[in-house]
Recover the amino acids of this structure.
């Protein structure tokens, strides 16, 4: 055979292959040479417009070969362009339906009939008649409602096969009218709603036919039962896909005419369950899976329930998402009156769901689950669940319906597009926004349909194969444009629509709130105050009126600031809504924005750096401390641009910078104010990094300790200079000794600075005057660091000095030695374990430590009487120091297994063994614990338990300070603060925060068991 020129085939989008040539010749579309007849040219032109031309040619050749009326078929293809468009549209768009036509070649006649423009593609009654006839149902008999009505006469595998063939024949008609306009422009376009309604009608008829076939299989002695099949999801909304699961809920009851004395619920439910199970099996093998997982209690619940059982469940136990699912419920098969009764029972709960306490939490959890369920490698290919996908549109429309449908019955519609139109008519969504979202939704649904038709496979993933993507695009009517292929043009449109949907919550949910409270110029949507209040409450704000006032304050007016805020806030409101405390977040955002109103870069940074804005909203909705700090440390916002910038500053570099800034000040007060400002900046940076999960708890402690040391050093330098200026000469050397958590390098956000002061007169100075000068310096240092200013104070606490508050503030090294040798109590040895020079004269600090070593690390170990005394004091602390009303199981410092328990245990080991174990000579708790393990004083398992408990308590204590904005050791019993602490510590937002409390108690309980064993035995 002579091969035609490549360009002859290429003109019609066909590859130059032997298979294609043979098929074309078999169809009479090519001569043995290279000529195309005029009649064949029209057919090939239609072929060229199909989704996959070579597929259309091959399927048509196989159909012609199997058809008994081959001549009639080919004549119709050649002379009836509208029929040709329908047939070739299917053959070039779906291998599954092409295979069906080859297997059932007489079905091509079904495509000769025209659908009525503007109406459903198929008449529901005609569909039911075709499917019923396939299994031998008498069309004149009443429809099956359970054990009553018309039953199938064809049963078993024969019924399933017959129903499958009939189902495919009707699916063929719908797909043909859907795909045909891309092949023949003269054919009316089938709208997405008409396609979906026809698919839903086909599903209803399939369910009804399956029920009749299941009823025929019931044993003769089965108890009488009525069964209603309530469609849910897309089928319930009459928005079904080509290859969707059909979601249903079953309701069973006795026949109305059955005497009361003959009614046995158990036997009736056995029959109804057999009917439901049989129907699911038959439809699953003939068409698609019937999914009843939306029933009460899900897959673990009874398949069929009575109306009373449904009423009890939905009245007491149902979750918010279950009521949201019921938004689309409708009777689809079986007993329609029983199905309506189910709707009457559940409908009030649907429209009151927004008033449920769990509404916001359930809605937010549902949104998170949608995204979490997407595998990472599918995120960019998901048409349904991905960002900007179908579920985003459906979720937003349903949420708006639930919020406003309570008061507006016009919104109580099941379908997404009809619901969106109702929202536009009611003024809840702007006309332009509604049109944009409807266009995006229609595009995505059509693409989903074409994907599923390709191989009659349930999928929502865009194909990776370039040829399949081109097939999808062409089946949807796309063609090459310039140098771009149809797939590339399609992809461009898809990205545009996805971007529209990504702005979904801004467009449809958040932005109208601003229009309700701000004087927005132009023809924009304005919600009523009542509607705005409902919507803001649905986001999780407990005080909607206050939230609306904050929005008004931020967005009202025509200033540039107000305009930028109107752009930012729709995005940020969603982040506030997802945070533990939306009210706190919005209030703090208003305070920060007002404080920085004249800072030229603030709003520009938020507008241009989306990550900064999102992080800021999340931080403010999680932490009172961050909101307080950022109003005075706005420069930290610049570090939120990326993780590297936030983590770049190191403790030693921060210390050097802070001291250099303080040294350039003219007065002591100005110097310390600069130091405190630097400390505030570092506190804010560390807090932000902590909240974002970027900085480890030990690094937080080191950073807080180093910046506190730097502030003390700056204050000491400034106070010394002031006293020297006032008194004319420098008479004393002074060293500041860090104690407690400061000495141990374990500061938290709310820790005080525990210190002691040691001084020596300079050579030739009067000792009394030198000591008086040192006292004046120490007193001024503390007052400068604690002076009321907008910056966080650093409270310097010297109560651990000899004789406590009654003792001298500053002593000489000789005085310390004398006191330790003659008067010191065992607890003072213990306190000195954390002593470490942090500021002032380095040589004097080293001498103090050397002298303290002799006292705190006794060479012969601790006297047994001192051990007993320390145990006695610890027992007294346990009994007396826990605040009244505190829960000992969740108090992070003084509770059972808390920080105090672990630290006292480690410190007792140090006092007893540091004289011989050099590794124990450290002020750091965890370092000492590791040294005790290495020395065999603690088992490896016990060391792990104590380390874990200490870290857990430290993290929790820091989290409490971040959330509440003030020092706190008690874990909240419940509420938003508990949820915020749990979120900060890494627990999922949709998990019960009680899981965190249980985990904390478990760690503390294990720590306490080790403490009880070691503290008494050490």
């Amino acid at each position: 055979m002579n091969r035609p020129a490549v360009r002859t085939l290429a003109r019609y989008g066909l590859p130059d292959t032997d298979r294609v040539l043979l098929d074309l010749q078999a169809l009479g579309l090519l001569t043995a040479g290279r000529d195309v007849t005029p009649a064949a040219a029209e057919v090939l032109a239609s072929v060229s417009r199909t989704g996959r031309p070579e597929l259309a040619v091959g399927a048509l050749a196989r159909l012609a070969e199997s058809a008994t009326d081959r001549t009639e078929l080919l004549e119709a293809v050649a002379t009836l362009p509208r029929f040709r468009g329908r047939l070739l549209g299917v053959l070039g768009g779906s291998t599954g339906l092409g295979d069906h036509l080859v297997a059932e070649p007489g079905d091509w006649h079904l495509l000769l009939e025209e659908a009525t423009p503007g109406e459903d593609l198929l008449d529901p009654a005609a569909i039911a008649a075709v499917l019923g006839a396939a299994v031998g149902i008498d069309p004149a008999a009443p429809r099956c409602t359970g054990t009553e009505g018309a039953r199938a006469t064809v049963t078993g595998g024969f019924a399933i096969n017959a129903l499958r063939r009939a189902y495919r024949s009707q699916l063929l008609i719908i797909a043909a009218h859907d795909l045909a306009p891309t092949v023949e422009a003269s054919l009316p376009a089938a709208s997405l709603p008409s396609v979906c309604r026809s698919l839903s009608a086909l599903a209803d008829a399939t369910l009804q036919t399956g029920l009749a076939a299941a009823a025929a299989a019931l044993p003769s002695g089965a108890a009488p039962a009525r069964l209603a099949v309530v469609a849910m999801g897309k089928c319930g909304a009459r928005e079904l896909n080509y290859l969707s699961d059909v979601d249903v809920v079953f309701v069973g009851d006795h026949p109305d005419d059955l005497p009361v004395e003959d009614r046995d619920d158990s036997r009736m439910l056995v029959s109804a369950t057999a009917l439901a199970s049989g129907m699911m099996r038959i439809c699953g093998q003939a068409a698609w899976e019937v999914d009843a997982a939306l029933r009460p209690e899900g897959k673990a619940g009874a398949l069929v329930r009575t109306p009373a059982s449904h009423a009890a469940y939905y009245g007491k136990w149902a979750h918010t998402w279950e009521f949201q699912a019921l938004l689309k419920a409708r009777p689809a098969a079986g007993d329609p009156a029983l199905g309506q009764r189910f709707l009457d029972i559940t409908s009030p709960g649907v429209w009151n769901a927004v008033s449920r306490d769990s509404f916001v939490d359930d809605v937010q959890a549902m949104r998170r689950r949608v995204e979490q369920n997407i595998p990472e490698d599918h995120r960019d290919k998901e048409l349904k669940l991905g960002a900007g996908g179908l579920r985003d549109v459906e979720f937003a429309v349903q949420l708006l319906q639930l919020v406003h449908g309570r008061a507006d019955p016009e919104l109580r519609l099941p379908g997404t597009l009809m619901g969106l139109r109702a929202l536009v008519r009611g003024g809840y969504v702007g006309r332009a926004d509604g049109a944009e979202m409807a266009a995006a939704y229609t595009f995505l649904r059509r693409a989903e349909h074409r994907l599923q038709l390709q191989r009659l496979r349930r999928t929502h993933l865009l194909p990776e194969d370039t040829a399949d993507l081109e097939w999808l695009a062409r089946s949807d009517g796309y063609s090459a444009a310039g140098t771009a292929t149809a797939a590339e043009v399609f992809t461009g449109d898809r990205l545009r629509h996805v971007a529209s949907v990504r702005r979904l919550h801004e467009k449809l949910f958040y932005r109208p709130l601003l229009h309700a409270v701000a004087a927005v110029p132009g023809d924009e949507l304005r919600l009523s105050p009542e509607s705005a209040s409902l919507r803001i409450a649905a986001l999780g704000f407990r005080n909607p009126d206050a939230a609306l006032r904050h929005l008004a304050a931020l967005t009202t007016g025509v200033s540039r600031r107000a305009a930028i805020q109107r752009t930012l806030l729709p995005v940020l409101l969603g982040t506030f809504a997802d945070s533990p405390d939306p009210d706190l977040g919005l209030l703090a955002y208003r305070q920060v924005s007002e404080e920085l109103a004249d800072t030229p870069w603030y709003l520009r940074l938020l507008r241009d750096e989306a990550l900064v804005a999102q992080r800021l909203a999340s931080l403010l909705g999680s932490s009172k401390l961050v909101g307080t700090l950022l109003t005075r440390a706005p420069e930290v916002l610049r570090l939120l641009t990326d993780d590297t910038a936030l983590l770049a500053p190191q403790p030693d570099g921060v210390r050097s910078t802070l001291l250099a800034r303080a040294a350039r000040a003219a007065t002591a007060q100005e110097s310390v104010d600069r130091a405190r400002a630097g400390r505030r900046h570092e506190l804010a940076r560390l807090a932000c990094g902590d909240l974002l999960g970027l900085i480890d708890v030990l690094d937080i402690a080191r950073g807080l300790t180093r910046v506190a040391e730097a502030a003390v050093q700056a204050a000491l330098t400034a106070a010394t200079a002031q006293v020297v200026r006032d008194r004319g000469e420098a008479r004393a050397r002074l060293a500041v000794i860090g104690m407690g958590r400061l000495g141990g390098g374990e500061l938290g956000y709310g820790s005080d600075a525990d210190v002691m002061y040691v001084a020596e007169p300079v050579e030739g100075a009067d000792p009394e005057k030198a000591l008086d000068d040192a006292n004046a310096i120490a007193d001024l240092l503390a007052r400068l660091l604690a002076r009321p200013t907008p910056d966080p104070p650093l409270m310097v606490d010297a109560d651990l000095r000899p004789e406590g508050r009654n003792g001298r503030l500053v002593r000489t090294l000789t005085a310390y030695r004398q006191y330790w040798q003659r008067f010191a109590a065992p607890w003072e040895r213990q306190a000195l374990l954390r002593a470490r020079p942090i500021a002032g004269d380095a040589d004097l600090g080293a001498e103090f430590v050397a002298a303290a070593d002799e006292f705190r690390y006794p060479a012969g170990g601790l006297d047994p009487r001192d051990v007993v005394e320390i145990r006695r004091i610890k027992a007294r602390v346990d009994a007396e120091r826990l605040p009244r009303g505190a829960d000992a199981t969740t108090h992070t410092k003084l509770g059972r297994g808390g920080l105090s328990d672990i630290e006292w245990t480690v410190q007792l080991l140090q006092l007893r063994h540091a004289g011989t174990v050099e590794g124990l000579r450290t002020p750091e708790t965890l370092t000492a614990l590791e040294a005790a393990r290495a020395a065999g004083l603690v088992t490896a398992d016990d060391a792990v338990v104590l380390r874990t408990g200490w870290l857990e308590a430290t993290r929790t204590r820091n989290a409490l300070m971040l959330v509440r904005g003030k020092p706190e050791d008690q874990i909240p019993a419940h509420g938003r603060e508990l949820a915020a602490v749990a979120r900060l510590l890494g627990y999922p937002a949709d998990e019960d925060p009680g899981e965190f409390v249980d985990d904390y108690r478990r760690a503390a309980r294990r720590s306490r068991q080790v403490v009880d064993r070691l503290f008494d035995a050490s």
Q: What stands out?
A: The CA atoms of residues 701 and 719 lie 27 Å apart. The longest strand covers residues 753-761. Residues 359-502 form a domain with the Four Helix Bundle (Hemerythrin (Met), subunit A) fold (CATH 1.20.120.330).
